[in-house]
Amino acid sequence: MSGEGSSQDPGAPRHIEVPAPTPWPMITALGITLLFAGLLTSAAVSVVGFALIIAGGAGWFGEVFPQPRVERAEVQTEAVEIAPTRLPVAQLASAEQGNRAVLPLEIYPYWAGVKGGIAGGFAMAALAVAEGLLVHHSPWYTINILAGTAMPGLAHASTAALCAFNAQAFVVALMIHAVVSVLVGLLYGVLLPIVPRNPIFFGGLVAPLLWSGLLFATLKVINPLLDARIEWGWFISCQIGFGVTAGLVVSRSERIHTFQHLPFAMRMGIEAPGIRPTGER
Amino acid sequence: MASAALSTIAPPVAEKWELPARGRVGIAALILTETAFFSIFVIAYIFYIGKSLTPPYPRDVLTPPVVNTICLLSSSLTVMFAVRALRKGNTFVFAVYWLTTIALGLEFLIGTAVEWHRLIYHDHFTISTNLFGTTFYSLVGLHALHVTAGLLMLIIVMLLTVGGHVNSRYAEHTEILSWYWHFVDAVWVVVFTTVYVIGR
Amino acid sequence: MATEIALGELQSTAPLPMLGRLHEWVITVDHKRLGLMYIGGGLLFFVIAGLQALTMRLQLAVPDNHVVSPQVFNRLMTMHGTAMVFLVGMPILTGFFNYLVPLMIGARDLAFPRLNSFGFWLWFFGALLLYFSYIGGDGLYGAGSAPDVGWFAYAPLTERAFSRGNSTDYWILSILLTSVGSTATAINIIATTFSLRCRGMTLGKMPVLVWLAVVVAFMMLLALPPLSAAQVMLLLDRYLGAHFFDTQAGGSAILWQHFFWIFGHPEVYILVIPVFAFASEIIPVFSRKVIFGYQVMVAASCAIAFISMGVWAHHMFAVGLTPAGNAFFATSTMLVAVPTGIKIFNWIGTMWGGKLRFRVPMLFSLGFLFQFLVAGLTGIMLGVAPFDWQLTDTYFVVAHFHYVLVGAIVFMIFAAIYYWFPKATGRMLNERLGQWHFWLFLVGFHLTFDPLHFAGLHGMPRRIYTYQPGRGLEGINLIASIGALVQALAVLIFVVNVGYSLAGGEEAGPDPWDAWTLEWSTTSPPPEYNYAKEPEVHSRRPLWDLKHPEDPDWLYE
Fold first, then answer.
1. Which of C92, C116, C251, C401 could cross-link C246 (Cys pair, CB 3.0–4.6 Å)?
2. For chain A, what is the mean pLDDT?
3. Among A252-256, B170-174, C492-496, which is the least confidently predicted range?
4. Is C26 a domain residue?
């Protein structure tokens, strides 16, 4: 099909053989279509279609036998510049190998996220208890509401019952609060280094507002009784309290270098001759 | 590649560069899609086994076409020998085996025609009789259609051979055609098992 | 760093008379011309089927409307669906593969150029046959015109007894033709990528687009035959009195549904994986970074292809399968979300930390990314069997799959057109008109399809030709119809842009985007033989290696 002679010549050849244009495949296709169309119209159409298939098939065979018919396309050489067509972009100062770096260059260690989560959890708890004291004059109110996400019975309880101490609810709320705080803290530890700028703004304000909005939009449908109990202003300030505290703690921790660009064997600390990153020169 | 990269940035020397022949890949792809096509008809056949509301039932009218089956399956061997002979440049042996293959294929088609004639005129059993008729005629007929198409191509090659146009240069082409013929045979094994063994 | 490369004689020949040039296109076997013919034909039917959709939206704009009769509405909806899948999606995407795969692997043409031409013409005549039904559909019984049985043509309702006349036969035969054409293309693409790759291009060094083209080709080989087989069965039923789908003779009423969706669900992925391929080429170039996780990207696509073959019955939850069946298909449906999620994360990973350039192709890619995410999420919702029982055959489903087909696929097709138009024509599409096109289309899309989710949740069934006032559906439908008009305006701008840029667009040069795959190393448009000298590659980004000889990619792969 394509010019076999061309590959032997190291330079560009003068002519290149390309498959010759042919109408026969189209005529065969038309024949098949008419053959089918005869089923819908009249047998005569099918007869014409069949004749076209025979003619097209024979013509097609003539194209490829004994040798596929080719055409010589003339080659005109002209230099095609292969070069970057735009101005070079600024290089990463810390990219050790020219254009290449495995990002992020630095990350927070996992324990920074855990610490941030714990600190944020305390800040949030303080704000939530303050809400209970100021709005319902009882520190237990918000704790019971949190437990209500896992204990359906509490959703139907009266305000008075929610203001009273409930040992079971307290344990449940404590567990939910601790687990979620640490998990979100871990997430912060992972996410904050990849936020382009102002990690405190993102972690402290944007992210809490996003999930508060999500919860505000869906809780009416998921759990309307619980929804009716929530003071959204206080809720959001609790979330922001968590976000700012956790964000501050995480971003103040010391960053460590990533070693993703090193081969697996080197990261594992195996020392043997020949284990060097392929890019090092 | 790692070893070449250590000291120089000249591109590594390419090793031997061989790719499969396009004809073989193409026919394999065609066989794959045809397999999927037949599978649906086989599934329909098996799904409708025993669901016919009215007679005749398979046991009443079907007898396994043993001679047909032997002919068709042995034609796979003869076509293989034919291609092998052509590769060695022995056009006469090729022609003999090729003609044998055509004869065996024709026997299969005629055998099927005789069977259908008996079913239609003796047993009054047609495609619209019941679900069994529907699935039987469509599955066996579809296979027979493929045998017919294969036979037509075999006959064209035979005519070219008689005309003296076929030599060892076309061994690859006949090989590819033989793959299709093997596929048609393999489908018959499945159809035979479905219709005359499981379905009966 | 300059490379000697050839420039074809295309420009040097004197312009032929109109008829001569047309003849040249008709008898061509060149993969580039056939690819452009596929895309051009697909865009033509995109406009036709789009106008049909617009007519339906006008009918539904206000309650108790009388723009079209119920019968005409049914035909519109059937032809719109069938055409958008088989006459728009399939040809445009196979057209792109036709054009790009040989260029990207450094080949001179597809493996079987004449078969390629045969496939195109089968598709084209099949498409004409489908629309000819508007004239010829009366058939022997004088009943009906165009097909009115819905794009999935559920048997036994498409049997002779319920669908008189020839309209359904038009649907069967024309789609059968286009399927055979698509199968020919699939065989061609597989043979081309396995047999014609240039020196050095191992499977692991192929561009992601080529990988996904192979995956899609395999899916076509396996998924189209079930539809063709079922259509042959239906033809036998209708013409020879067979009983495949005849419940009176003991035939099954849901066998067709199984066969259709064994085809139909993979078909969704046959349409969407090519646009994944476009995204995987466009996003890295406009982020100035390599694709994130090449191997995982390819593996995830293979996983999607594999899993998508085993999820078909989630279209049939409302039929009443066994509980085990429901559980299996709900689970497998959820499973598709895993590799799909991996791909979305990889695209985001590609963009993250990159130097983004918000040109029109990138804008459409970003639209695709967000809309495809939403489409995937509603897909998971519908994959939950009880949820599906509630919302099956409502506008929620319509909104969901239009989010996939328009929000993801059409957006990404536009991105691909803006990206490769310079390569195919030598001229850039106008950037300002492109921005108008993108923003109007984005606004129009969301105006139309966001409210339709809620129409579905409010219980509006799909395929109704009108509705009564006072059911809370008026506002939603009016907004959706206005959105459809905005989309139409955007498409009009696109058409104008193509004409304007073809006539006097900015000269593109061989490599306007500073890209990295092989097709940008030849002239725009490429000569008939693509490459005068067969290229040799050493990495996944051969042009990067040429542009940065001091820091080539193959040191790191």
1. C251
2. 81
3. A252-256
4. no
**B8 touching A (Cβ < 8 Å):** no
Contact C111 B22 (CB under 8 A): yes
In a domain? residue C14:
no
Taking CB atoms and an 8 Å limit, are C250 and B34 in contact across chains?
Answer: no
Instruction: Judge: B9–C225 Cβ closer than 8 Å, yes or no.
Output: no
| pLDDT of res. C354 | 84
User: What is the C-alpha separation between B5 and C552, in angstroms, rounded?
Assistant: 10
Q: Which residues of C touch B26 (CB under 8 A)?
A: 111-112, 187-188, 190-191
| CB–CB contact A40 C169 (8 Å) | yes
pLDDT at A113 exceeding the cut of 70: yes
C222 belongs to a structural domain: yes
Residue C424: which domain range? 32-555
B19 touches chain A (CB under 8 A): no
- For an interface test with B, which of A7, A65, A266 has the most B Cβ atoms less than 10 Å from its Cβ? A65
Structural domain containing residue A145: 106-257
Task: Band the pLDDT of A3: cuts 50, 70, 90.
Answer: very low
Partner-chain residue, chosen from B5, B160, B165, that has the shortest CB–CB distance to A278? B5
Using the Cβ of A66 and the Cβ atoms of chain B, whether some distance falls under 8 Å is answered with: yes
pLDDT digits (tens, 9 = 90+) for B88-127: 999 999 999 999 999 999 999 999 999 999 999 999 999 9
Residue B190 lies in a domain: yes
Confidence band for A279, pLDDT divided at 50, 70 and 90: very low
pLDDT in tens, B23-62: 999 999 999 999 999 999 999 999 999 999 998 999 999 9
Name the minimum distance, in Å, from the CA of B95 to any CA of chain A.
18
Quote ipTM for the complex: 0.93
pLDDT tens digit string along C44-53?
Answer: 999 999 999 9
Task: Tell me the C-alpha distance between C298 and C309, whole Å.
Answer: 17
Picking from B2, B160, B165, the nearest residue to A278 by CB comes out as B2
Find the mean pLDDT for residues A16-33.
94
**Using the beta-carbon criterion (under 8 Å), do C113 and A23 form an inter-chain contact?**
no
> Are residues A245 and A126 part of one domain?
yes
> Which DSSP letter does residue C6 get?
E
Q: B6 vs A281: CB contact, 8 Å cut-off?
A: yes
Confidence at residue B3, expressed as pLDDT on a 0 to 100 scale = 37
Residues C171 and C153 sit within 8 Å (Cβ to Cβ): yes
Quick check: A36 and C12 CB within 8 A?
A: no
Higher pLDDT, C552 or A82: C552
**CATH code, domain with C165:** 1.20.210.10
What CATH number is associated with residue B109? 1.20.120.80
Q: Which of A53, A74, A95 is the last residue of a domain?
A: A74
Please say if the pLDDT value at position A94 is more than 60.
no
Chains A–B, number of C-beta pairs less than 8 Å apart = 11
Reduce the secondary structure of chain A to three states and give it as a string.
Answer: CCCCHHHCCCCCCCEEEEECCCCHHHHHHHHHHHHHHHHHCCHHHHHHHHHHHHHHHHHHHHHHCCCCCEEEEECEEEEEECCCCCCCCCCCCCCCECCECCCCCEECCHHHHHHHHHHHHHHHHHHHHHHHHHHHCCCHHHHHHHHHCCCHHHHCCCHHHHHCCCHHHHHHHHHHHHHHHHHHHHHHHHHHHHCCCCHHHHHHHHHHHHHHHHHHHHHHHHCHHHHHHCCHHHHHHHHHHHHHHHHHHHHHCCCEECCCCCCHHHHCCCCCCCCCCCCCC
Tally of domains in chain C: 1
Q: Name the residue of chain B whose CA is nearest to C113's CA.
A: B22
> Cα–Cα distance between A248 and A165 in angstroms, integer?
33
Rounded mean pLDDT, C406-426: 96
B33–chain A nearest CA distance, Å: 20
Assigned domain for C1 exists: no
Identify whether A85 is part of a domain. no
